Structure formats: structure tokens, C-alpha cells
Amino acid sequence: MSIEMITTYATALCLFIGSGFILVGVIGLLKFNDPMTRLHAPTKVGTIGIGMLLLASIFHSFSLGDSSMHELLIMGFLFVTAPISANFIAKVSIHRKACETPPEPPRDDTWSTLNRPPHDEIVPDTLDSPPQGAPEKA
Amino acid sequence: MTRAFYWLLPHPFLTLLLALVWILLQNEFSAGMAVFGLILGVIIPWGTSIWWPDTPKGFRIGKMVSYSLVVMWDIIVANIQVAWIVLTVPNAKLKPAWIVVPLELVQPEAITVLAGTITLTPGTVSADLSDEGHSLLVHVLHTDDADAVRDEIKTRYEARLKEIFS
Asked: What is the nearest CA distance from A113 to chain B, expressed in angstroms?
């Protein structure tokens, strides 16, 4: 069994596992019906799915003779940036009340997303009712 | 001597990391590129140090490596568990929950690493921090025992991070 055979099988196996996890992630994205639970599906795609595809790319370039290490950088940058976008999506769904309201934090006043200065609190009310003190329409 | 060192290299680990990233970007190792990466690694932290003056002192890089290995193993295990939940548990029986993790960590870097770890591990997403930074809000996809998840986060990740950023 030559080295090309081994790397080819390793590439195929990594591609298979990676695309399988991406498929499960997509099924989860379609199946769940709540924004917060739906957010859990892409974390799987972003870690194992992409990681396995990049590993397959490393094996493949190794079998071609010019080994490439760019994939490690892609993996590193992806692992650093993926939690930030998930965090922002979670904050948006807390704001839009698209999920259950989270419990109060035990030691502090409120969650930092919900920590608004008082003069901002008026804004949602003015959207559906006329502001207080506005003249009635005749 | 120490002051001169920290004046020239305000973030020593960042210098090493930038040099490593530069070498990986080049995709082939040569001495000239390594030297150029080191020069970049000195200039960039030195030029930007005015915006982040507080170097985290006492960062233990060896424990960070073992922590990364633990996290990678947990990502693999949790991926399989969550894939099983996605494929077998119907929506009506799913039990998502908010859990509140009281934090003992105080450094912003350590809390950031903890929140990133929680999000990267499938099944849990860190959603928010309380306004004074004493607790972390985490959303769990499917759990019967929310307290057990909280205790696992505290013992498995936070305790290790406390040793790393001591």
C-alpha cells in the first residue's frame, strides 16, 4: 500500500465525515422552530464539518507533493470568529423577544444586552402609540 | 532590564503568534521570512500597545496547550451527541434551557476564552454577560438537568482557565 493510496483514503474519509456533519447541521437548521435552538445547528457545521473538510484539503495537498498549511490558519481564524457572530445572533433574539426571557443574573442588576439608559426606553412606545403630551387629532 | 523588555515587547506571546501566522501565510519556511515575521511581530504590538496597555501577566502557555486538547476532544464528543439529538429528538420533546453560570474569573481575556469555548462546544451557546461581568448567560439545546451542565462548565473549563490566567 503506497503513500498515495493512504492519503487518498484519508482524504475521502475526512470529506465523508465532514459533509455528514454539515448535512446534520443543515437538517437541524431546517427542523428546529425557535431562533435560539436553531442557533445550535451551525456551531456543529463550523467546528467538525469545516475542520474535517480542511483536514481533507491538507491530506490532498500532501498527496500532490506540495504540502499546504493555510488550512490551519483558516481553522484558527474560524474558531476565533465563529463565537462572536453566534453571540450577536443570541443578543438580537433576546432583544426581539424571539425566545424565552432569560432569568435574572443572581449578583448583578441585568444582562448587558438589556441594560439600556432610561432615555432610550421611550423609543419602542412611540412606535405604536403617540408620545405623551402630543395633541389629539381632531 | 525588565522594563526595557516590556517597552520593546509589550505582548511577548503576540509577537510569537504574529511571527507564526506570517510563516504559515508564506506556506514555505525560509530564514528570511522567519526574520521578517519576527520584525512584524515586534512592530505591530509596539505600535498598537497604546490601545491595550494591560498585558495579562502570568499566562501559562503549557496549560493552555493541554486546555486546547481537552476542548478539541469535547468538541468531537459533543458534536456526536448533538447530531444524535438533531436526528432523533422531535421538536415537541426538546428541552432547551437558559442557564446562568456565576463567574469566578475576572480578567476579560479569560472570560472571552470561556465564552468562546462554550459556544464552540456544540449544544451550548454563550449568549450574554451580566452588566457587571459576574455571570454568563448560556443557552442549552437539550438537557434534563440544567444544574449539571452548569457544574460541568465550572469544573471542566473555568477551573482550568483560572489556573491558566492566574
From this structure: 7
